[in-house]
Amino acid sequence: MGDQRPKQNIRHPWSWSSFPHIGRTAAWFLFAAVMAAIFALLLGLLLHHHTAAQQSRAVTDPWYPSPLASGLDDWGDAYSRARNFVAGLTLLEKVNITTGTGWQSDRCVGNTGSLPRLGLGSLCLQDSPLGVRFTDYVSVFPSGVQTASTWDKEYALSNMLNDLTYSLIYNRGLALGQEFRGKGVNVALGPVAGPLGRTPAAGRNWEGFSPDPYLTGVAMYQTILGTQSTGVIACAKHLIANEQEHYRQAAESNGIKTHRHTTESLSSNVDDRTLHELYLWPFADAVRAGVGSFMTSYNQINNSYASQNSKIINGLLKDELGFQGFVMTDWAAQHSGVESSLSGLDMTMPGTGIPSDGTSYWGSNLTLAVLNGSLPEWRLDDQVTRIFAALYKIQNKSNSTFPEVNFSSWTSDDEGDAIFAPGEQYQRINDHVDVRRSHSSLIREINANSIVLLKNINSTLPLKSPKQIAIIGSNAGPNLAGPNGCPDRGCDNGTLALGWGSGTADFSYFITPLEAIQSRAISEGSGVQYVLEDYNYAQINATARRATTCLAFINSNSGEHYISVDLNEGDRNNITAWHDGDQLVSFTAANCNNTIVVVNSVGPIILEPWINHPNVTALVWAGLPGEDSGSSLVQVLFGDVNPSGKLPYTIAKSASDYGTNVMYEATEDVPQQDFTEGLFIDYRHFDQYKIEPRFEFGFGLSYSTFSFSSLLIEKASDSPYKANPYVPLTPINATPTRGKVSDYTFPSTFSRVKNYIYPYIPADSNIDGGSYPYPPHAVDTTPHPPSPAGGGPGGNPSLYDVLYRVSATITNNGPHPGKEVAQLYINLPSSANAPPKQLRGFEKVSLDVNASATVTFNLTRRDLSIWDVKVQNWVIPTGPITVFVGRSSRDLELVNIL
Ligand SMILES: *[C@@H]1O[C@H](CO)[C@@H](O)[C@H](O)[C@H]1NC(C)=O
Ligand SMILES: *[C@@H]1O[C@H](CO)[C@@H](O)[C@H](O)[C@H]1NC(C)=O
Ligand SMILES: *[C@@H]1O[C@H](CO)[C@@H](O)[C@H](O)[C@H]1NC(C)=O
Ligand SMILES: *[C@@H]1O[C@H](CO)[C@@H](O)[C@H](O)[C@H]1NC(C)=O
Ligand SMILES: *[C@@H]1O[C@H](CO)[C@@H](O)[C@H](O)[C@H]1NC(C)=O
Ligand SMILES: *[C@@H]1O[C@H](CO)[C@@H](O)[C@H](O)[C@H]1NC(C)=O
Ligand SMILES: *[C@@H]1O[C@H](CO)[C@@H](O)[C@H](O)[C@H]1NC(C)=O
Ligand SMILES: *[C@@H]1O[C@H](CO)[C@@H](O)[C@H](O)[C@H]1NC(C)=O
Ligand SMILES: *[C@@H]1O[C@H](CO)[C@@H](O)[C@H](O)[C@H]1NC(C)=O
After folding, report:
1. How far is the CA of 455 from the centre of ligand 9 (A)?
2. What is the 501 CA–ligand 2 centroid distance (Å)?
3. What pLDDT band is residue 828 in, cutting at 50, 70 and 90?
4. pLDDT tens, 89-119?
5. 615 CB under 6 A from ligand 8?
6. Pair 815, 703: CB distance under 8 Å
7. Mutation pick for ligand 2 pocket among 335, 365, 752 (CB with most ligand atoms within 8 Å)
8. What angle do CA 254, 127, 299 make, to 5 degrees?
């Protein structure tokens, strides 16, 4: 989100899950009769067209009516409070809370209308998944992908932050929540499980965790628990199949003239099984963690926009996964009024296009839609109840008051316009509250635990007081324009600490590798030389030749589509090193027989040009570390910390080995991206097609060696898969709000702000009803039959029954204390047509030299099931299931049959 390009030209997408013709409510209302006629005609034509010409184009099944939130699980209390509260709201108030006030209207990237009668201010929604965006005195945490490479869900910090006791992933979520809260942000826009990482070049993969749905699911769960424990509502995003940047929005793509003109966002065409087993899996964990909000994506899924895809929002998220909170759009990704509401959307952000032109599909239009009867009021009530339930459950569960917003996203001046774009309400606007606490030590801890050692010939590392260190490459040093020199980190100058786009935050300070290595080297009595000019080969050669240890720093960058860096339009154009990094490494190595390569990258890069060079003695994968790149790298290089990070993705020998790629050039007006690879992405693809990777998923070396023994499998439960216990609610047939137009117009004393979105309707509005060709059951008060796979948070509660317990013993054979990640993979019987291996458990343990520990993995019904598209439920395939435990996806020394 956070797109800053002009509002997209609103088109009328044809989709099965939504209304075939999208008209804004008000427009419909005025021309109801005419439109109904045109509609019938259009519908007929399109249906005909569909069957005749678009036989193969993916379609979405409709899923109506939108399920009412029921107070499942531990949401019951929040629900009864929310229902009571909403019963006392007026129509205008209800509309106000569903609709953003406009781009740059208020202080946050998204703000809802307020409820002045009840003394409730607007809700503040703010980026990003790794820190509070657009403000100062915040921490910039390691990126999602970096955090995932800790594989740390058990390790407890000993004494650092007294309230942090769980895992590094949890602790990061908690620390993020503390900072958002400290700035007065109600909804933190993260974490990310979409993109999942279908293809390694996709621009925003680094905002999420891993292309493995299990690892991402654990990271989503832990992050959300941590963040929401502070009273800040987390936002699981972007739902769903948001797997590339090119063509995510037509207007944005059309701004880049070299591409085909497109009329709609790209459609990610995903089959039902793949959707369940890969892309939806981590979102189920998010729901299970009690996440308060979801954000839909820019793309279409099977030719229906994510923000109005009734199958995804009503069917999968709200019914099958039992989601009880609210669903918002990505920024300016709403494409219809009544239709998006009926499809399950609860909140529109930022309420309008970008920049704001004062119009909205909701706001005024939503008020009209309820008054003229085109939107049943129970749906609006459910939207609002969901928002307040999330507030009651997460924010208001304690009695402490939530801070007011104390910053402005749009200026760093102390004073300015609180209502920014139109320039109103000049006041003190930035309090510059320092919310960082002692989070810098947590950041170093995460980085030290996430650096992946990929090569280490003859114990090159840890360094042993080298006589002369040569540091080579711009990726070791500062951005000369300053750590925040490029807005939203939209450049590749200096060492790479984050990708670019809305998923970033401004650095309060920044420690480069050069700075940290130099100060450590001095204390070791080493000499240090450096060349930060990537193309100054004469100086690189000369400097490398005189050193005893060379550190060659290279990177590869990507980000969000609204910024292009070196012609990379969000997605990477290639997965090789930038700034001729291969040449830089090769020249360094040609002159230095002890060349250690350090890579900062958003994802895999191809290492083949030099990985087997005899003088490349070590390779350190330092990822996207956030504000402190140097300190933890030094700890690993010099051996204060024994590396324990593991790759959260596969590094291939060739880009084509991944079997998937970004669609860089569209061939149709509505680009169709068929996910033909199905379940086979990342290591699942390499295993299935027997392709040798350079470094496999889950791989990472230590300065010690660990052995695995004593695999034990125990049956934990025989409990059968039970039926969905949930009974859907029937909407209360409340008397719909009616009245005169004049009851809903601007109050006479009201002073309107230009381009601001309000719930009031124009005085000349007509609120007579009319007939409207809804899709079947869209406005029914009889609920849709519930999915057998639903009934609890994250799906049917029996999916989470533990059926088996697997244990294994890990021993540290020395010579250093260290940590190892025991990884459990399963192989399902061949009848399942499943990937050869799938991660289904991991445990990170810390061991002294010669010490052993036994780890236990719980295998749930979900872990052993596949999605059966015929019965529309999870099923454990019949036949033997093999369990593997070991140190990477291809180094699994323990094997047994369940
Ligand atoms: C709706 O929100 C706006 C902006 O916060 C506020 O000015 C207005 O009074 C609210 N309207 C109602 C009816 O609460
Ligand atoms: C309501 O929707 C119509 C039709 O889509 C649009 O033209 C109009 O600007 C909207 N009204 C407001 C007040 O946003
Ligand atoms: C909040 O305050 C009420 C009334 O003072 C009290 O009954 C309740 O226990 C408090 N809740 C918490 C979580 O402190
Ligand atoms: C590692 O060290 C041994 C013993 O000094 C030496 O024989 C061997 O060639 C070295 N290996 C590499 C790859 O440099
Ligand atoms: C920084 O990046 C910009 C844009 O990517 C580039 O044009 C510029 O030359 C760079 N500056 C330095 C000092 O590297
Ligand atoms: C640097 O060293 C490499 C390998 O020895 C050589 O090919 C290249 O020509 C050298 N470049 C310069 C400018 O010295
Ligand atoms: C890959 O992309 C980077 C960044 O744009 C560029 O510097 C590099 O030259 C490209 N590599 C190849 C082989 O095209
Ligand atoms: C390795 O480095 C030494 C300099 O230390 C150099 O003489 C040798 O040619 C290099 N080897 C290769 C294969 O480039
Ligand atoms: C590199 O070359 C130096 C000087 O010839 C030699 O002492 C050293 O052992 C070599 N290092 C490696 C890792 O081969």
Report:
1. 18
2. 30
3. very high
4. 999 999 999 999 999 999 999 999 999 999 9
5. yes
6. yes
7. 365
8. 35
33-89 pLDDT tens trace: 333 333 333 343 333 333 333 447 899 999 999 999 989 889 999 999 999 999 999
**Residue 330 bears catalytic tag:** yes
pLDDT tens for each residue of 128-154: 999 999 999 999 999 999 999 999 985
Q: Does the N-terminal peptide bond of residue 788 adopt cis geometry, omega within 30 degrees of 0? A: no
> Any idea which residue has 């999330």 for tokens?
390
**Protein residue with least CA distance to atom 9, ligand 4:** 458
Where do runs of H (alpha helix) occur along 91-150?
91-98, 144-148
Ligand closest to 201 (CA) is 7
583 lines ligand 6 (CB under 6 A): no
Active-site option among 330, 492, 628, 657:
330
How does pLDDT run across 831-874, given as a tens digit for each residue? 999 999 999 999 999 999 999 999 999 999 999 999 999 999 99
Cα 618 to ligand 4 centre (Å): 13
Segment 835-847, tens digit of pLDDT: 999 999 999 999 9
Q: What's the whole-number mean pLDDT along residues 548-557? A: 98
Q: What percent of the chain shows pLDDT beyond 70?
A: 92
Judge if the upstream peptide bond of residue 240 is cis by omega within 30 degrees of 0. Answer: yes
Name which of 430, 426, 408 is nearest 417 in CA terms: 426
Residue 812, φ and ψ in degrees, nearest 5: -90, 110
Cα dihedral across residues 407, 409, 415, 421: positive or negative:
negative
Q: Which atom of ligand 8 is nearest to the CA of 614?
A: 13
CA-364 nearest atom, ligand 2: 13
The CA 570 to ligand 7 mean position distance, Å, reads: 14
- Report the C-alpha gap between 416 and 53 in whole angstroms: 56
Q: Where are the alpha helices (DSSP H) in 718-867?
A: none
Tell me the C-alpha distance between 822 and 843, whole Å: 5
Please indicate whether residue 468, judged by its CB atom, sits closer than 6 Å to ligand 9. no
Q: Is the Cβ atom of 565 under 6 angstroms away from ligand 5?
A: yes
- Amino acid in the structure at residue 210: S
Report how far ligand 4's centroid is from the alpha carbon of 793 (Å): 55
Report which of 116, 120, 124, 122 is spatially closest to residue 750, judged by C-alpha positions. Answer: 116
